[in-house]
């Protein structure tokens, strides 16, 4: 099976392919919203994709609604702390629109919200949080392979990790006895001053110590120093741990992307959580 690709369409940036069986509009760029909404539907029909998910500024919502898209989630303050991003979705195959585990997802959201005020732990004395460098890429890719059999972006490839380190992603890790045991990344959109907190992975023997929330705390401090205004995540909806992590860190739930992402061997729904990192966001 060929991998999903990232390409341009009239100034917009999109990812599409058979792995996720969808089109993901990552950035609308300078494209005309009304034309683009229709072009994406045409591409989906040509390729046989069963979902389109378009991340767009709120000002483009009307154009996508007019083409039959529906809003599944939002990130207030995504664009420089001022304008929201909306996730507008269209389903060429209506069966993909319904999550079989919808009740479980709702229960996890409720559980996560109820954990909001739970205090955060201290970093164990034998561990250290670091900013990862190119020298860590091979070990990082090995961890990602262990934790995620499949993933929507090629983090199993050390070359991809090194390349993105040089452009827009800052990777963080936790060392125990000079060995990486947990990872996460901050994928920065410097132009719009937002960041996706993502790629969280903890080796099985080190889970249950709240390492993800400790990483997230350091990542937020780092991003605030970079002038980032809004942080968000797109977390596996069926994973209690990650949803709880973001709720405990003060993030607000803002929607579920249904049957959205090929991760850990199958298509899963994803929950969107966000948090302002500056008072103006």
From TrEMBL:
It comes from Prosthecochloris aestuarii. It holds the Pfam family Acetyltransf_1. CDD domains: NAT_SF. This is Beta-lysine N-acetyltransferase. NCBIfam families: GNAT_ablB. Residues 127-278 form the N-acetyltransferase domain. InterPro entries: Acyl_CoA_acyltransferase, GNAT_AblB, GNAT_dom. One of its GO terms (molecular function) is N-acetyltransferase activity. It comes from the Bacteria.
């Amino acid at each position: 099976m060929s991998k999903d690709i990232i390409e341009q369409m009239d100034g917009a940036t999109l990812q599409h392919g058979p792995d996720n069986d969808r089109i993901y509009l990552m950035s609308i760029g300078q494209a005309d919203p009304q034309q683009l909404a229709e072009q994406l539907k045409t591409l989906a029909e040509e390729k046989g994709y069963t979902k389109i998910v378009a991340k767009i500024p709120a000002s483009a919502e009307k154009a996508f609604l007019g083409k039959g898209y529906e809003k599944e989630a939002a990130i207030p303050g995504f664009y420089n702390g001022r304008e929201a991003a909306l996730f507008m979705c269209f389903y060429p195959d209506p069966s993909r629109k319904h999550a079989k585990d919808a009740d479980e997802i709702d229960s996890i959201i409720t559980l996560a919200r109820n954990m909001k005020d739970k205090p955060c732990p201290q970093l164990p004395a034998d561990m250290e949080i670091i900013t990862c460098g190119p020298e860590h890429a091979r070990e990082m890719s090995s961890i990602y392979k262990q934790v995620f059999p499949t993933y929507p972006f090629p983090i199993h490839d050390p070359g991809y990790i090194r390349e993105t380190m040089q452009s827009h992603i800052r990777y963080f890790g936790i060392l125990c006895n000079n060995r990486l045991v947990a990872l996460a990344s901050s994928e920065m959109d410097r132009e719009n001053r937002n960041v996706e907190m993502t790629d969280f992975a903890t080796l099985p023997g080190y889970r249950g110590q709240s390492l993800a929330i400790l990483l997230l705390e350091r990542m937020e401090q780092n991003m605030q120093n970079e002038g980032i205004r809004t942080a968000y995540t797109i977390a596996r909806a069926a994973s209690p741990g990650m949803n709880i992590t973001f709720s405990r860190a003060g993030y607000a739930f803002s929607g579920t992307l249904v049957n959205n992402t090929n991760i850990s061997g199958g298509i899963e729904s994803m929950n969107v959580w966000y948090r302002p990192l500056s008072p103006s966001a």
